[in-house]
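Schema walkthrough. Field components (list of strings):
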Amino acid sequence: MPALQRILSTTEGRLAVIAFGVFIAMALLSPDKFLSVQNLTSMAFQFPEFAILALAMTITMLTGGIDLSVVGIANMTAIIAALILTNVTGSGDGWAVLALALCVSMVVGMLAGLFNGILIAKLGLPPILATLGSGLIFTGIAIAMTGGSAVMGFPVATAWIGNSTVLGIPTPVIVFALLALGVSLVLTRTGFGIKLRMFGTNPLAARYAAVNIDAMLIKVYIFSGALAATSGMVVMSRANSAKADYGSSYLLLAVLIAVLGGVNPYGGYGRVIGVILAVLSMQFLSSGMNMLQVSNFARELIWGSLLIFVMIMNTWRARRA
Amino acid sequence: MKIDWSRNETLVALVILGFCVAAAVSDPGFLSISTLTDLLRGGIVLGIFAVAALIVLISGGIDVSFTAVAAFTMYVTAMILNAAAPWMPWWAALGFGMGVGACLGAFNGVLIAFFGLPTLIVTLGTMSIFRGTMLTFIGQKQITTLPPGMRDFGRMMLLRGENADGSFYSLHGAFAVTVLVVILTWAILHHTMLGRQIFAIGGSSESARRIGINVRQVQFFVYIYVGALAGLAGIIHASMARVANPFDLVGLELSVIAAVVLGGARLAGGHGTLTGTILGVALIVLVRNSLIVLGIPSTWQSVTIGCLILIGTGLPAWQAKRAAARAA
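Field assembly_structure (string):
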């Protein structure tokens, strides 16, 4: 079957088969629950927040870097937005305050990314250490601003981002879809995207090709910071609160999804469609296991096994080729 | 003695010194035996972890699964010894833990050395696997009655005493184990062929292969050794806490790696010293235990550690970048 072989010869093709297989398996194992409208919508509300973090991880990994500060940025910006939402009283139902909070947190996210970018590009820190350190600082600032407790009591309008639907589609999915499309276009259709992948494949060649590496790296981390801030807004709206230690397991999950999606952690290769397929596989798996009443911790076990399985498959095929 | 100002060790030692002077000025009670024993106590488990992380970094890899190995080992060991071998003395319990840890480490070793997978990805994956297996199939409840061997070890003290003000201080016997681990690792790294080979594959695994080093075998040893050390640290942690809590330890891995990197080990491999590692651990423990003495509230602890990491790794990186620019 040459058609099947062609599908299986690419990382994305194999992932599509895995995602489809998991979906079918879960649908067969508990048809009335897994395929119910209720389950499908609850899945659609759950995955965007970590999927957006995985997008941020993807663009930094394409340059051969990594951004371990995404969860820190998300929580810090969410807390800043939450403090604005609870302390600034606007007129009306809070749309103006919400807009202000969103703008401020986006700017803060980009500044945090700029900080990372300067550390990495100008001072020459290894990305893993720079973002590990800055992630601790961002989380620390979030703790210091709140004393570690949750910020709650937002105007009604806030729930719109994380808890509403537009034309029957959950808003977080729309946000994610737009961002995924945007990232995909930037990576494939702009000079910036080409430079980024070129640097990831061979930094020296990129330098000889007169790519302004410092400016490019700084832009990448600003981009990643902005994505992390968006994810922070979605989490804040869905949880209707903000706290310094929300989503600490998302960091590992975001790295895992990016790698599962075929992004080369040493840089150079990665496609948004792979990341989307990886996100869907993970969400189908974990919702399905929820239906089957498998413990939460079994999810962790299966995620880890899936990651290693896919890596073995990828290297084994590469070696044979 | 000539002081080399460009080394990380010098920088970290100066920061520690500065911290102690500032702390002593703001609270004269800081300079006491109980502060010292508290610091040493805080460094026992962290120190063993750091030595393990150092060896992996020198060999050119990175391991984030060692805390999961430690948690798995302490939980499973406590359970097995309680059920099957309560007569086991403390030293056998420690040995048993090292064995369990070594098996888990061998799992990492197979994936890394024989399948050739990237170390960060493998250990991220196995961290979830170890933790998930333990919490799904073995148990989630704390074990509050430890086996007698571990209980005895938990009560062992090297020294004990009373301060002038009537408060007590003590130094746990496990400190001696940490010292032994440091000495053993020093001997392996600097006085055996194997140690030179670990440095060599970290420096350049291709060159190491060409001069006839069996890279896979060395890597395999490194991950088994790290697993054994992590298992040991897990047993010590449970014995000192007098409870085996499966949710302990995991989450510590990045702070440990930060401590080692502060001490001058490089992520690219081939560089790193035990002196630097010990200093790095000392600094992290100092910040965790005594930040409050300087008048900085403990909510700022993670900001402080974050800044230390950035300064500690940023200064040498920036110096290297400037030197490279001057040479070019």
